[in-house]
Amino acid sequence: MIAFGACAVVGQAYALPRVASLNLCTDQLLLELAQPEQIVGLTPLARDCWSAVLCEQAQQAPVMRPTAENIVALHPDVVLGGVYTAAVAMQAARESGAQVLAIPPAKSLAGIPVQIMQVATAIGVPERGHALVQAFERRLAALTQPRSQTDPTAAVYAANGFVTHAGTLPDDVLAHAGFRNYSTIIGQHRSAHFPMEVLIAHPPDLLILDRSGRGNSLAQSLLDHPALQEAFAGKRHLNIPARLWLCGLPQTLDSIALLKAAHRAENGPERQIP
């Protein structure tokens, strides 16, 4: 009886914490790292395949609206979230005694391993975190292109005509794939609407359409504007799903692989990349 009781205490001492996520990016880091039984709630966006690369995996996990009421009811040990969203729910988690970890948006590939380890440590699986980081760093090293002042230019054109500027995760992805960011070359240093007419008049070497939806919204429909299609007909362009770099994840490296294929096309026979 004494031995059995001791084993029970040890088992409880090493029980992994129950974890809730209030943010799309922490949803996916949690799916990458946690044991399934640790997850008490993800946001509904985790199951949206336009937004989340791990949407299929998320079908097997519980989802919840990121509200204070849900956090209080679930009473998780650890709550993961962003720095700009679900502030009331995050505060409720703190007041209920949960460990709260706010993860800012990843602005570079170098920041991804840091965030992986922050989450892995908080949820009690540092070994899984180290393994994921090592795999990420090996693949990043294999994919990274040497940089040059003569690298081709690429414009990331998103809904509402926004172009990706310096200091963002997509900008860092472009650099690692061997491209210079078009917005930096033309002096666009902040996130703002960029006139399609200027893009057409002074085209980049590669046009990247950053698709974050099915294209049925007015904002998304700009990416399929007839004038844009005509101007870039026969020129190299690439569709990259926004979910690949919306969050800093191991899968973000897939966008480098897509861009490297476009880089090779730049030096070979002209072809269009779907």
From TrEMBL:
Ranges for domain Fe/B12 periplasmic-binding: 18-270
InterPro entries named in the record: ABC_Transporter_SBP, ABC_transptr_periplasmic_BD
Top-level taxon in the UniProt lineage: Bacteria
Protein's UniProt name: Ferrichrome ABC transporter substrate-binding protein
